[in-house]
Amino acid sequence: MNNIEETVHINRLLDIYGELLSKTQYEIMCDYFWANLSLSEISQLRKISRTAVSDAINKGIEKLNICEEKVGICKVFDEFKDDETAQKIERKLRHGI
């Protein structure tokens, strides 16, 4: 996967499984992946070290990937990508049921 594909993948996982992360991890990952803030910007905003920001992102990515390995929601959606029902379900997951 290249960086763009990986970022899109992580954003999908964050949409689906983000609430399983700690509040701080979720917020840091949203700052990084959705708001496109740098590690330095996040560390300054949260008054923590860049290393702490990097650790939170890496651990968050790991947890999201583990969730996907166990549950496989993205895989199911990919199998039914053109299926209107799968698209409706994905929209509901993103915006709350």
Summarize, please.
The chain has helices at 3-17, 23-34, 39-46, 50-71, 73-79, 84-95. The chain is an all-alpha fold and 97 residues long. The chain has one domain (3-71): Arc Repressor Mutant, subunit A (Orthogonal Bundle), CATH 1.10.10.
What does this structure look like?
The protein is mainly alpha-helical. The protein has a single domain, classed as Arc Repressor Mutant, subunit A (Orthogonal Bundle), CATH 1.10.10.10. The chain is built from six helices and no strands. The longest helix is centred in the middle third of the chain and has 22 residues, at 50-71. The chain is elongated and about 45 Å long. 14% of the residues are buried. The mean pLDDT is 89.
CATH domain fold name? Arc Repressor Mutant, subunit A
Structural class: mainly alpha
What is the CATH homology-level superfamily?
Winged helix-like DNA-binding domain superfamily/Winged helix DNA-binding domain
Instruction: Please name the CATH architecture.
Output: Orthogonal Bundle
What share of the residues lie within helices? over 70%
**Count of helix runs:** 6
Q: Averaged pLDDT, please?
A: 89
